[in-house]
Each structure stands twice: as structure tokens, then as C-alpha cells.
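Q: Hi! First time doing this. I have a protein sequence and I read that you can turn it into a structure. Is that right? Here it is:
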Amino acid sequence: MCGIAGFVSSAVSPEELGQTVERMCAAMLHRGPDDIGLESRAGAALGMRRLAIFDPKRGKQPMPSPDGRYILVFNGAIYNHLELKRELSALGHTFHTDCDTEVLLAAYIQWQKSCLYKIRGMFAFAVWDAHERMLFAARDAMGVKPLYYARHPKGGLLFASELRALNASGQLPCEIDPAAIGEYLSWSAIPAPRTIYTGCLALRPGSWLSCDPTGQIQTGTWWTFPQIDSEKNGEKAPSDEDFRIELRSRLEEVAQLYTRSDVPLGAFLSGGLDSTACVGLLRHVNTTQQLKTFSVVFDETGFSEESAAQITAKAFGTEHHELRLTGKRLVEDLPKILNCYDQPGGDGVNTYYASLAAKQGGVTVSVSGLGGDELFGGYPSFKELPRLSRLLPYWQILPSKLRNLIISRLKARENTRARLLGDWLENAIDIHELAALRRRSITEDARKELLCPEALRHAKRLGPLHPLVDHLPQELTGADDFQIISAWELRTYASDILLRDSDTFSMANSLELRVPLLDLPLVEWVWQQPTKLKYRSDSTKWGLAQATRDLIPETILKRKKQGFTLPFSLWMQGILKPFMEDCFSQKTLKDCPWLEVAPTQRLWQNFIQGSDSRGWSRIWSLAMLITFCQRKKQAAPSKKRYCFLLVLLHAVLEQGDICGFLL
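A: Yes, that's right. Below is the predicted 3D structure, encoded as C-alpha cells:
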């Protein structure tokens, strides 16, 4: 697990390439406090910060091939590296470490881009081919590990694990993109490939990129959801019991792989089905090793899952740790938390504290139950969207005047869900477009009202639908409603918010976070199974519950689903209120000129006055955008100040008399 960075350009000297990558790596110290590495050659420099997981004493990066032709930097974990090592050894490769990095390098040398179909894990890596002067990079299928890149003005590219590293390179303007502001308001995140900065892109999950000697960049997709009529149809389970047995077998195999580590391993435990199933499986496949579990708990009634987590920990005999979070502590920690964001986000504070608890509890690797909702139908969208999509044909034959009247009345209601429903009926014609609107956090009318003219132009051009609506439907030909919604949840909410936040906030605490329920072979198999075997509308995540029912305490199986939510709605009207008031003040909003002041302040006032009490997440997301813009402005010296510094530097170098210059 690392932070990786690189700079590829034939127009820049090796010294400048190396110095740039040094700055980028320095900005990612938190991602890899154990080691730093840099390799600079004509045409490319690659660097890394290492958090050592496999073979901590060896496995230094960047890692060259034995003949020096290839150089690899790698962020992630290859869980099947032992099996691949045996296969590659039989093909003539020699290994000098026990780390997965060396196995990945050999796999690339042996199979080139096709190695992506052999490796099993989470990854973002880049390989420089010194003979061909080519860079190849790729990101894992689910998007667990991030990779950002940007074209260099002189040709070539820069890439890194975090946007802050691209910002620290000094080679890019990293100016806020007005179009990204509108996207963020819609989704409380900025969908890939766009980022908060103009010209800085996020490589999409399941994608690769290359940069040739001329500096030309190409991108492509190496993984898509399996075709329903593919040969893998033969893997469909014929009955409930067959499905349960096969799923359990696959879950146990995944648990075995994901416990591989040369450093202490633990697990997040919220008290819900997903994390409980993961902990149960880890204990089932490894009964000899003591497992540490970690929960974040609150004093506020109705939010904490403390008792459920304690029941599970006791049942499994784990060494359980709790971090009790109060509003007072959150206020004290806010500067550190805000600094974790390298682009604005409306979620993730819970992951920050869970990761902090794990790190303070003595582990370097932790397991999360993320992915169960997406694969086994844990979200309301799995019920709501099929029902609504069946009504759309009848809705569309109504007279337009009647439709417009109904939409206008829905939008006039105080209830946010009713207003969002108005958006769905106005803009969606099928289940894909419903799914492309489902995760919107704000209505289109409200978004347009908030945006300044420049940002509004981009919002109107891009439209109200999620940008994946242009690609994902073609990928899902033949899929049923459940599979369509599962794919949309995985590619939007999971990828753009949950996994991004998991990486951001776990790495902020120098913790590797693993998500076994998103193991690629498991995802492919579950996704293709008949819906009736894995989903029941009256039972929480039926398929997962049935496959692990002998492991999970009865009280957890019968427990109603409860999302892991911090008491923000209470804190924002209490101890967090001064911070929020400052965010929405006239002075602070001047640092975010892409938002109109009056409508932005009105949203905050409506929340305080109680007319939109369920809208705390939208208000918090807006506050995170405003504070990000404020920090960005404060961090960037003005052009006038920058010019003064250049003149001052010239005086010191040429005259050697700084006092005389100032006088």
C-alpha cells in the first residue's frame, strides 16, 4: 500500500522530472510513512511513499526489472500473489522478495496488459518501459485504489495517487473547474473522470492509460460487467440451496485471501450485516489468530450501533475497541479532517474515525464490509426504481399539461424526496435514467439557483443526469432491473463516494483498508446470479444473510437495517453551529465565487429553522465545498505576491543584499 507519483516528458530534464516527483511524494507522506523511493531517467521519473504490508524489509519501490527495462510503482495489494508467484516461477521468473510488488512486475513482463486479468486485488500501478519510452498505468475494476493524471503543457503527463500531489508538483495550474462545482452539487462528489481541477482527471475504475514517446495519452477500458449471454451463464446456481452453498464457499475463499498480511490485521465492526458477516468469515477461516475489531460509537440515542457491535464482538471472541465520538471532539479535529480532502466530499468523517481507531488499536490493515448493499440489494433503490420504471410508460402517455402540473406540485412541496421525484418524472424515460438520477442530493431547480452564471452554463450543458448515462446502459445489455441497479450503485455511489472516502481517510491514518465483498471474481459471480436467489424485498440482503446465517448472531440477523450515520443533524444545530455559521457567512462565501450568496445562505437558514430538517447531508456537503474553496484560495499566493517573491529572489541572487533591496 503506497502513494505513487510520476512525471513523463521528453521535453523536461531528468533533474526537473526528479525534483517534481520528490515534491509530489512529499505531499503524500501519510500514505507511506515506512519508506520513500525515486527513480529518475531520461524521459520519466517515478516515485513512491511505502506503507509496508507484504515483506516489510524488502519490496522497495520503484522496483526495476532484472534487466532494467521496466520500472514499476504500485499502490494496493495483490491477494493471489502466492499463486501467481508459483505460476510465474514455472515460466522461468526468479524472485528475491516475498512481496506482491515483485510478483506484479513479473506478471506485467510476462503478460503485459493481459496481466490485469490474472491479478486479484486492489491496485493502481504504473510501469515505465525504458526501451520503448512508454508508460502504462491501470486501475482495479471496482475502483478501490485511485489514480489521477494530467497532461503536461509541454507534452507528456503527471500521475499520482492523490490530487494534492498533482497540485504540489508545481507543473500544473490546478484551477477549480466551474463545471465540477455543478457536478458536486448534484452528487456530493465529482464523478470520474472529472475532478475539482480543470485538466486533472481521475482514471475510471477498470481502465488503463498509456503515454507514448511523443507525449500522446490514450485511455481504454479493460473490465466491464459480464455479458448476460456469455459462457459464464453456466455458473448460475439452479436453486436457493445451491446458491447458498456456492456463495459460502466463495466467501470463505475470499476471506482466506484477504487475511494475508505480514503486519497486524483487524476489521471495522458497525453492528450491521455486512461487517458482521466479514468478521464472522475472518474468524471462521482463521481460528488461531486473535482478531481485533473497531467501532465508532456515540452518546446520542438512535445513532450509535454500540450494543449490536458488542454482541457481535462477544460472539466471535474478538479483541474489541471502541472510539467514542462526541461533537466536541469533532470540532477539535475538524482542521485535520478538512486537510484530508484533496477535493471536496460530503461524506467520510465516519471512515476517518474508524481508521483512526484501528491505527490506534495497533493494526496496519483493516477489513471493511463495504459492497454488501450494492451486491445484495441493501438500498431502497432496489425496491423503488423497478416499481417506478414500470409506471413510466403510463406516465409518459398522460397529456403533457397534466404531467407538468403534477411535476410542478411535487416540486412545490417542502419534502425533499417529493421534489426529487419531480426531477425523476421530468427527466427520466427508463430505468437507466432513473438510476442516473437516484443518487442526486439536490434538485435541479435548486442546483441552478445556487450556481453563478459561469458554473450554470456548464450545468445546463451537462444536464441533470449522471455522466455515466452515456456509457453504462450499453454495457448492461440484457441485464435485469436488479442487475442494472446493482451496476449503477457500484459505479456511482460506491466508486465516487464510498471507495474514494475509504481510500482518503484510511490512508490519512496510514491504514490499508480491504473490501473483500468487492473481490472481483466474487462480484462477477454474484452479479450474474438469478435475482430471486440473492434478493428478497422483505428481507435485508437475503443472499448474504443465508450464506452466513450459521455465523451471525440471531439478533443481528433479525435487526432492522440501520445506516452508519453520525449525529450531524444534532451537532450542526449545536456544537458545530459556529463552524457552519462561518461557512455560510458573506465573508467566507466570497472565497467560493461559483455559488450565489443569497440562495446558499437561504439553504442554511431553512435547515436551522427546521423546514428542511432531513437536509443536513446536503448542507454539510455544501459546507465542505465552501471550506475547500476557502483553503484553496488561502494556499495559493496572489499573482502580485508571487511576482514580488520573484523580484526579491532576483535581488538576493544578483545583489546579495536583501536589506538594501527592501530599503
